[in-house]
Known about the structure:
Order of helices and strands: HH
Shape: elongated
Oligomer: single chain
Amino acid sequence: MEKMATLHYMDIGSLMKNAMIDTLYDLLAKIGYTHPLHPPFTHGPIGALIVAFAWAWPAESCADTFCCYPPITLS
Length: 75
């Protein structure tokens, strides 16, 4: 007696996940983006947080360091 091939819950979930990811990559490829999604989704927000903290840091706290001395003047 032959065993029938059955898909378990995890197999169906994996197939659906792969289909959704493939669809996303296909959509992005149609507009010309063929790179991996990890760099912009991971490093972009983290870089934005670092810049936000750097801009929010009070300038007086680093006035004696090289980064803020001498003051830059625009003429």
